[in-house]
Amino acid sequence: MKSYKTTPPSFKTVLEHPWLWISTFFGSGCITPAPGTWGSFAAWGAFWLLDMWLGRSFIWAAALVLFVLGCVSVGKSTAYLNKVDHGSIVVDEVVAVWVVLLLTPLGFWWQLSSVIAFRFFDIVKLPPASVVDRGRQNGFTVMLDDIFAAVYAILVINSMAWVAGFYGAASPFWILR
Fold first, then answer.
1. φ and ψ at 89, to 5 degrees?
2. Nearest Cα to Cα of residue 23 among 81, 96, 102
3. Torsion of CA 111, 47, 77, 2, to 10 degrees
4. Residue 137 — very low, low, confident or very high, per pLDDT cuts 50/70/90?
5. How far apart (Å, rounded) are the C-alpha atoms in residues 82 and 175?
6. What is the pLDDT of residues 33-86, one digit of tens each?
7. 74-77 — which CB contacts under 8 Å span 24+ positions?
8. Measured on CA atoms in the order 60, 61, 64, 69, is the torsion positive or negative?
């Protein structure tokens, strides 16, 4: 499990090391307390802007690129942070939040619920995320455990939306959206 009691890098350090820009999502992971939550809400803000300006297809592509860059940047940032899954590394939350928001209903309250559900599952770390988190950590596993949390959030929020009639009586989740 991530340790949030570690000291985050200074913004000056982040500015001096481009890999830290990516790992901390432009410094949002340096905000304490709860850097993962700050990173998740920064991701939501970035999602909203990207969706408004460039659209969902761009966000899918950006999430894929950021996943790959995140795998590399986590490894490169370890030299500066002295820990593989340092609390200030939030690029994994950003990618996962984007995936959650892409696959859950539109609208402010659905999106807020989606981000909160993701944070819950990211903190609780249900299997297989807990297994990945306890295993050998590297950039890929740091990114992967949040994707598992995203899957749980997607299932919960879409189930709630389906029960609430958001998708219609016969429509399972987002398939007919």
1. -80, 115
2. 81
3. 0
4. confident
5. 43
6. 999 999 999 999 999 999 999 999 999 999 999 999 999 999 888 878 888 788
7. 74/23, 74/138, 74/139, 74/142, 74/143, 75/138, 75/139, 76/19, 76/23, 77/17, 77/19, 77/20, 77/23, 77/24
8. negative
